[in-house]
């Protein structure tokens, strides 16, 4: 295709998407709030912009076929911060896409939209929203926004409910890991599938201990290859016995299910910042 836009290009996940996306289009426009993201790939340009600026979003998505929307606060945070970046920012992306005739938004949603469901429920994609934080609530809003803009304005969306896209370093991640290669594969299938309408899909690898059912998203052709079982022995050997009454162990949102609203959930996960550098 001619032009793709990637928001959140300066983030850890965005860093792994930039190069693969340049191979899917003539022009990749990467954007984030930082002044610079370093060396650019062939076919990539960078525009500094704030998601809360609708006019800036309109200018960036002009003539784009699709937007890959990863820009947002990637953790639980105070309400006013979530409102601006994750809720108003999401509205501005879809509204700009509508005004400029963009075909599809590929959105980095999250398990935290349904994080209070129990692991043992093995929920499907049709399970009701049950957010675990303000962060998760914003993901619910964006998913419903995507559904509305498909029903009323014809903008297709794929909402990728990403679990643990980071190194598998804790017991929870053995069931929830999404490798970077599988993330790239998921985004590629979300872009090159001919018709998606409004689609939700779980973003996790082919883990033996997966806690959700992805069967209703088969039309995307997302077939993850990696499996966190390769890390299980070492991770479990270092993990103390889990409290089976602790919601952080029972709910699919993990520690996000127990943090106080407005306080970081990522802090309890030990996420390694292995951001890709060009």
Architecture overview:
The protein has 278 residues and is of the alpha/beta class. The chain has one domain: Rossmann fold, CATH 3.40.50. The chain is built from eight helices and seven strands. Helix 1 links the parallel strand 1 and strand 2. Helix 1 packs across helix 6. The chain is globular, with a radius of gyration of 18 Å. The model has no long low-confidence stretch (mean pLDDT 97).
Which helices and strands appear, and what pairs or packs with what?
Blueprint lengths: L2 E5 L4 H11 L4 E6 L11 E5 L5 H8 L4 E4 L9 H21 L4 E7 L23 H20 L2 E7 L10 H4 L3 H13 L5 E6 L25 H9 L9 H4 L28
Parallel strand pairs: 1-2, 1-4, 2-3, 4-5, 5-6, 6-7
Helix pairs in contact: 1-6, 2-3, 3-4
Keywords:
278 residues, alpha/beta, Rossmann fold, 8 helices, 14% strand
Shape: globular
The total strand number stands at 7
The CATH superfamily label reads NAD(P)-binding Rossmann-like Domain
Number of domains: 1
Number of helices: 8
Helix and strand sequence: EHEEHEHEHEHHEHH
CATH architectural category:
3-Layer(aba) Sandwich
Widest sheet: strand ordering? 3-2-1-4-5-6-7
Percentage of residues in DSSP E strands: 5-15%
Which class of secondary structure composition applies to the elements?
A: alpha/beta
Protein name: Uronate dehydrogenase
Family: Belongs to the NAD(P)-dependent epimerase/dehydratase family.
GO molecular function, one term: uronate dehydrogenase activity
InterPro entries: Epimerase_deHydtase (IPR001509), NAD(P)-bd_dom_sf (IPR036291)
